[in-house]
Design goal:
The longest helix is centred in the first third of the chain and has 22 residues. The protein has 106 residues and is mostly helical. The protein has four helices and no strands. α1 runs antiparallel to α2 and α1 packs across α3. Keywords: Cell membrane, Membrane, Transmembrane, Transmembrane helix, Transport. It is found in: Cell membrane.
Length: 106
């Protein structure tokens, strides 16, 4: 796996961090969640940019969004901010399959 793919995967993980921190910041009224949001957002964008240096933009963006979306949704279900239903979990599994498929054909 190339450095570009590793950077892209890590930046997808950081997308989930900044999305969760953004929610926790309560409209940027709480200091530490806001600081975590800003740091993880910048690092996530840098990783996405590195990934796009070798991976086609459509694939890179879809993988980045997919990782972030699945992890953010899963965290929300784990922390009981969203309901975990069989259909939601199945749809997230389908999204994971699509991200893995994009990696496989790239």
């Amino acid at each position: 796996m190339s450095f570009a793919w590793i950077a892209l995967i890590v930046s997808g993980l950081l997308e989930a961090v900044w999305a969760t921190a953004l929610d926790s910041s309560k409209g940027f009224r709480r200091l530490w969640p806001t600081v975590i949001f800003l740091a993880s957002y910048i690092a996530s964008m840098v990783g996405l940019a590195i990934g796009m240096s070798e991976i086609p933009v459509g694939t890179a963006y879809a993988v980045w969004v997919g990782i972030g979306a699945v992890l953010t949704a899963a965290w929300a279900m784990i922390t009981k901010k969203d309901r975990a239903t069989v259909l939601r979990v199945a749809l997230l599994a389908g999204l994971i399959a699509c991200v893995v498929g994009l990696k496989a054909v790239s």
